[in-house]
Design goal:
The chain has about 290 residues and is an alpha/beta fold. It contains 9 helices and 6 strands. Strands 3-2-4-1-5-6 form a 6-stranded mixed sheet. GO terms for molecular function: catalytic activity.
């Protein structure tokens, strides 16, 4: 999936969106019944994913680069940011950090209900449509789109400054990252709903073409109609090749398995199989 958007600043070269590392809420949904969503922390594996992502980020940067981090104010994204900074702290590359509330997770209605009640909500959402369905007392993805649009306008104004860093890193959440890309590249809501969630600490890379001054999206996103039995090694290599063949100045990227580990893929795919089965069942009842 390759798309374009034009930015005139000659120094600004790269945008990277990074989903937070594995959190306690990702492993145990009951956590969301008694811990506020913004206070959910990373697991030990999530902390390691963040540290590995920091080393990966450091390997992607050039000596003359500068970095601006924008992060969601949630605890798990702050902790992920700490891991990213630890990876580049010894490189001497200058960086700045801004916290942005508009980058927060989709609001699921404060403390979540029982497992049975939440299952009914997910079934209803699958039937209604993931983009427009508003969680009771919470938000829809369309609501996230609205605040993402405001954030984009803020970024576009900043892009005009020659002092803007060469690399922008957005540390955020899975749905926010997909909505950001949807807004930036003007994808339809059908295209948004066709996408699976991104992996923990997976890099979504947008690189500037110096000739066209447009940003090309280099990362292949997994879709619901992808083959579920696709070999894991082949999947990682396919993603690697997709970025490398389209990359101009960042062809020395280090594609470690930190964000595409086998355990992470197995866990994510098991969740996706269950969601896909649920989605198909609700469609059959329409």
């Amino acid at each position: 999936m390759l798309s374009f958007c034009q930015i005139s600043n000659p120094f600004f070269q790269l945008i990277i969106l990074i989903r937070h590392g594995e959190s306690e809420g990702n492993c145990d949904k009951s956590v969301n019944r008694y811990v506020p969503n913004h206070k959910v922390v990373l697991t030990l594996r999530g902390h390691q994913q963040a540290k590995d992502a920091g080393l990966k980020l450091e390997s992607m940067l050039n000596e003359d680069d500068s970095v601006l981090f924008y992060t969601s104010p949630y605890k798990r994204t702050r902790q992920t940011l700490d891991g990213l900074i630890s990876g580049i702290s010894n490189s001497g590359i200058p960086y700045k950090v801004h916290e942005e509330p508009r980058m927060r997770e989709q609001d699921f209605g404060n403390f979540q209900s029982t497992a049975e009640e939440m299952e009914m909500i997910w079934k209803e959402r699958a039937h209604y449509g993931h983009f427009f369905y508003r969680i009771p007392y919470g938000e829809s993805a369309a609501d996230v789109y609205d605040r993402c649009a405001g954030f984009n306008e803020t970024l576009f104004r900043q892009f005009q400054s020659d002092k803007f860093p060469s690399v922008l890193v957005l540390v955020t959440h899975g749905i926010w990252a997909r909505v950001f890309l949807m807004k930036w590249y003007r994808w339809t809501y059908e295209e948004f709903e066709s996408l699976k969630n991104v992996g923990h600490c997976q890099f979504l890379v947008m690189e500037k073409n110096p000739e066209t001054e447009r940003y090309k999206f280099l990362t292949k996103l997994a879709k619901w109609d992808d083959d579920d039995d696709e070999d894991e090694k082949e999947y990682r290599e396919e993603m690697k090749d997709e970025v490398l063949k389209n990359s101009n100045s960042y062809t020395d990227m280090n594609f470690s398995s930190s964000d595409l580990s086998k355990d992470s893929q197995r866990s994510q795919r098991e969740k996706e199989r269950k969601l896909k089965e649920l989605f198909k069942k609700t469609l059959d009842k329409c």
